[in-house]
Amino acid sequence: MLSRLSRISKQSPSRRCPTAQPEEAMPSSFPLYLTAAMLAAPALTAPASAPAAPDSGLSWAPCRSVHQEWEKEDDRSECTTVTVPLDHAAPAGRTIGIAISRIRATEPQRRRGVLLMNPGGPGNQGIGMPWSLTQTTLKNVGRDHDLIGFDPRGVGLSGGFECPKDASDGVVPAPGASAEQRFRAEYQTEAHANARCTGYDRELISRLNTRAVADDMDDIRVALGEKKISFFGISWGTALGAVYRSHYDRNVDRMLLDSVMPPEFSVETMERGTSAAKQAGYEDFAAWAADRDGTYHLGRTSREVRDAALSLWRRLGEHPVTVKGPDGKTREYSDGSLSVILSYQRPHWDEVARSVAALRDGGVPPLTGEEPEHESWGLQPDSSGGLFMQRSVLCNDQGAAPDADAAWRLKRYRAEKYPMFANGAGYSNWCSGWPLTHGPGWDLQRGTSPLQLVGHRYETITPLVWAEQMKRRIGGEVLTVDNGAHGSLDLVDCASKGVDFLSTGRTSGGSCPGEPSKSLPGRPG
User: Which of 487, 489, 519, 523 is nearest to 1 (CA)?
Assistant: First the structure.
C-alpha cells in the first residue's frame, strides 16, 4: 500500500490503503499496550538557509536523528512534539504529546504558510506524510507551503496503543448454527472485546474522536505561530478537515479533501454506502459482459449475467470449490471469494469475466478472490495503535450502536438489497456493545474558506456521491477524477489542479483523467 511512497518506519504507514474487507476477515478487537508516546527531540538551531516563518519557540530536530527507523534518504524532515490537553474542555488536566514533522517550503520568497495533512484511517500515522508527498504528483505544494505531518492522538508516536485479540472474548456458535446465530455470536465476541479493551484507559479512549483531533490541529496551529493553516486530507482525513473547518473556519486558509466521507456519519452509513457502490459497479460489469457474450458466454443480457453470477455465488456458498490458482497455490473459492472478484474495477473486467466463467466451468480463475491485507478505509495493521484507534474513533463518533436485534435487521436489509455485497465495508459489528459515552459528533457547518473536494467516479470505498453530499452540507466545489482508485489524486496528473488551488484559492469543478486507474482493491494506481 505504500505504492510509490517512501516507507518511513516499520511501524509508520504513511498512507492509506483503500480496501474494505469482507466481514468475516476483519480482525476482532484486540490486553492494551501503550507504546512510546512522545518523540524526544533535542533542541537544534534551524538551518540558516531555512525560509522565514513565525518563531514558534518549538525545538526541532532532524527526524532521522530521533527516530531510528526513519527513512534514511529523508534529510529534510524535522520533528518535534506539541503538548495538548487530553480533554480540551479541561485544559489544566491530563495532557498528551502530539508528534509533528515539518518540511520547509522550497521557495521561501513565495511562502504562503503551512499545509497540515492527514492520510486517513482513522489510525494511520501521518508524521511521515510530508516526505511521502514530495514523491508524488502533489509535490509542488511544497514550493510555497511548509508541509506539516502529525500522528493523531492514540496513534504511533502520539500515544499509540493496541489491544490484541484475546481468546476469552470468543463466543463460538454451535455446529450447524444458522446465519443469524453465527452473526449474534460474532456480535457478542466483539462486545466482550470492546468492554475489555476500553477498560484499560477509559479516560484516553473516550477522547479518541474526530472533534478532539481537530482541536489538536488548532493547538498545532497555535504552537507553530500561524494565524491560519491550509489542510490536505484523504479518506477519514476529509472528515477531520470538514470538522476542523466547521469549528475553526476563520483559521483556514485553503482546504483540499480527496475521497470524501459522508456528511452524516454512522457505521451503517459506511456499510450501506459501500454495498450500494459495489452493487452499482457490478451491474455496470454485467452490462459490459452481456455486450461481449461471444467472448465470455456469461449471458446475452445484463439480467442473464446477473442471474448467472448470483446462482454461482449461492452454489459456492453451499459448496466451495478448491482449485490451483493463477499463482500456483491451491485455494478455496467461496461465495465471499466471488463477491471480492465482482468488486474489482473496470480495468480488470476481462479477468473478472474469465474468473466467473472458470468458477462456473471448473477452470482456473485468473483472480484469487482474496482481499489484500486488512486495510479498510486506508488502514494498515501495525503495532502503533492504528486498528484500535480506528475502532475507538468510529464508535465514539457515531454514538450509540444498534443492539444485536437491530444490527441483525440491518444486516438482513443489506443482504436482501445487495445480496453479494452485504458486508459493505466490514464494520457492522465493530461497535457492538460499545460501553463509552459517545463524543461530540461532527456538527458540520457551512464555511466561507476556500474548499476543494475531490471524488473518484468509480470508487466504492468513499463513493463519489458522498463528495456531492458534503458539498451540499458545507460548501466547496467537487472535482471528479475519472478512476476508481481511493485517495489517488496524488498519483494522477490532474493533481496539478490541487496544487493550483492551494496556491491561488481557485477551485475546479468538472472532471479530469484518472490514470493510473488500473487498481485492484487496496492497490491504488
Answer: 523
pLDDT at 25 over 80: no
Better-predicted residue by pLDDT, 54 or 406: 406
Task: Indicate the pTM of the whole model.
Answer: 0.86
Greater confidence, 50 or 282? 282
Average pLDDT over residues 130-159: 96
pLDDT at 52: 61
CATH number of 59-162+208-266+440-513: 3.40.50.1820
Domain range annotation of the chain:
59-162+208-266+440-513, 268-361
> The C-alpha cell of 507 is what?
477551485
CA atoms within 13 A on the CB side of 45: 3
Task: Reply yes or no on whether the pLDDT at 374 is more than 80.
Answer: no
> Alpha-carbon torsion 147, 153, 156, 158, what sign?
positive
The neighbour count for residue 405, using CB atoms within 10 Å, is 10
Q: Residue 411: which residues within 8 A CB-CB, separation 6 or more?
A: 183, 422, 428
Q: What are phi and psi of 434, to 5 degrees?
A: -55, 120
Cβ atoms of 224 and 58 closer than 8 Å: yes
pLDDT recorded at residue 428: 85
Dig out the grid coordinates for 463 from the structure: 463513493
Mean per-residue pLDDT of the chain: 86
Q: Which one-letter amino acid corresponds to residue 64?
A: R
Give CA angle at 249 (244, 254), nearest 5°. Answer: 85
What is the rounded distance in angstroms from the CA atom of residue 419 to the CA atom of residue 425? 14
The dihedrals phi and psi of 404, each to the nearest 5 degrees, come to: -60, -40
Determine the number of helices (DSSP H) and then strands (DSSP E) in the chain: 15, 14
Largest CA distance in the chain: 72
Query: Is cis: bond before 320, omega within 30 of 0?
Result: no
- Strand 161-162, strand 61-62: pairing: unpaired
